[in-house]
Amino acid sequence: MLSQALSETISKLVRADGRPVEWAVSEGYVDYEAAVAAMEARAAAIAAGEAGELVWLLEHPPLYTAGVSSKDGDLLDAARFPVHRSGRGGQFTYHGPGQRVAYVMLDLNARGKDVRTFVRGLEQWIIGALGAFGVPADVREGRVGVWVERKGPDWSREDKIAAIGVKVRKWVSFHGISLNVEPQLDHFSGIVPCGIAEHGVTSLVDLGVPATMDEADEALRMSFRRVFGETVVGPPPA
């Protein structure tokens, strides 16, 4: 359950006019540079009042991205996968098969014009989706993303299950989140994910939740509605 203060804060993220957000899913793997170009074009069109908001769900082939705060020393194996420099916030992250990437193009002019609240909304969106699978998750002070606590008879640790990296231009967001459904977790070993070396990464399947990508998508959509408002199915950007 959200605290009353947090509920009141993120309630500002729902559009007063109730206009639904287009919800698009791409089949197959989408080239990263092509996705960024399509995202930037759509964000510009939203800012100009020429297009509606969009959440675009997809998978990328294996690759690493470097956000604006990335440090060269956190790229441990530059030859393993293609490395793309990105204008989003954050540091190094991995994208690849079995990971659901959601690019979020929302007009914050209609959603409170508060980037910090927007990021909290993204966090609660992911946490709510994981809750649909009975996975308790939360955020941690000083650590970007969404985390789960894992315990054994004589050990405990916290692993990252979802990443967040966004950019806002003219109060329109782009880039977004990634949720680990069933990626190859060893693919993360070529980087220090988000600059955090002392913690690991996990996925729904790694946690013993045999979720399909379609099931993850449905959980994401239901949770998104609770945080940001209604959605309507739309086509992926060209």
What would you say this structure looks like, in words?
- The protein is α/β, with parallel strands linked by helices and 238 residues long.
- The chain contains 4 helices and 12 strands, in the order αβαβββββαβββββαβ.
- Strands 1, 2, 6, 7, 8, 9, 10, 11 and 12 form a 9-stranded mixed beta sheet that branches.
- α3 crosses α4 (213-228).
- The chain is globular, with a radius of gyration of 17 Å.
- The model has no long low-confidence stretch (mean pLDDT 94).
Which key phrases capture this entry?
238 residues; alpha/beta; nine-stranded mixed β-sheet; 4 helices; 24% helix; globular
Please work out how many helical segments DSSP would assign.
4
Structural class call reads alpha/beta
Shape: globular
Oligomer description? single chain
Roughly how much helix do the residues carry, as a percent range?
10-25%
Low-confidence stretches: none
Strand content: 25-35%
Radius of gyration: 17 Å
| Pattern of helices and strands | HEHEEEEEHEEEEEHE
- Total E-strand runs: 12
Give the terminus-to-terminus CA distance: 39 Å
Major sheet attributes: 9 strands, mixed
Mean pLDDT: 94
